[in-house]
Write a structure and sequence with these properties.
Blueprint lengths: L2 H19 L1 H4 L7 H8 L9 E4 L5 H8 L7 E5 L2 H10 L4 E4 L16 E6 L8 H14 E11 L8 H7 L1 E9 L6 E8 L17
Parallel strand pairs: 1-2, 1-4, 2-3, 4-5
Antiparallel strand pairs: 5-7, 6-7
Bound molecules: S-adenosylmethionine.
The site of S-adenosylmethionine (SAM) has 23 residues, from helix 2, helix 4 and strand 2.
Length: about 210
Amino acid sequence: MTNATTNECADLFRFFWSWTSDPLRVAAIAPSGESLARVMTREIGPSDGPVLELGAGTGAFTRALLAQGVRETDLTLVEYGSNFMRMLQLRFPQARVLWMDASQLGQYKLFPEANVGAVVSGLPLLSMSPRKVMSILNGAFGYLKPTGAFYQFTYGPRCPVPRPILDRLGLKATRVGGTVRNLPPAAVYRITRRQPFGAVRRTSDLAPAD
Ligand SMILES: C[S@@+](CC[C@H](N)C(=O)[O-])C[C@H]1O[C@@H](n2cnc3c(N)ncnc32)[C@H](O)[C@@H]1O
């Protein structure tokens, strides 16, 4: 067995184990495959750095971002699972790995200015409340530059961010691809500001969504 195969088997086992202990948080029995990782990252390049990844898991999208030429030092990886977080620190020693809930993004100043070129999200938005989804998007768009994009995959038939939330935050979602070579098959959405130079409203300005 090659080292790569051994790593893949270890990741499968780690993922499955994490899923059995917290199915709603992990929300997948296996890490995303290479095909989905390519669709998620193919519009992103070195000039988009810094790049923020949410729910990085075992690093399937992180590896694809590096293959796209994004510098490891330009990566900030957010992960809530402590076992995944430690593994990401070992695998990507030059990236900034943050052990935190992505819905708290807006409560910190993770970047000195809104200069992030892309956000890549592996978060299970479908198993989260509308309020939590709104906090995540609001926090992420607070760091994205005006033309920056938020990439999200889903196993479902439509964008996992409900239309009322997109409307309230002044965002639009475009399906940019999909793959059947993933377990299960998945689609990828690019979420951007409707008016690139308008600001996204703060969560505190909005009435509760749920
Ligand atoms: C479906 S898995 C995707 C993992 C990886 N990106 C992939 O595609 O293989 C969801 C990941 O999001 C993480 N996660 C779930 N809720 C989170 C939250 N609120 N904040 C940060 N990470 C979270 C889980 O621990 C898990 O690693």
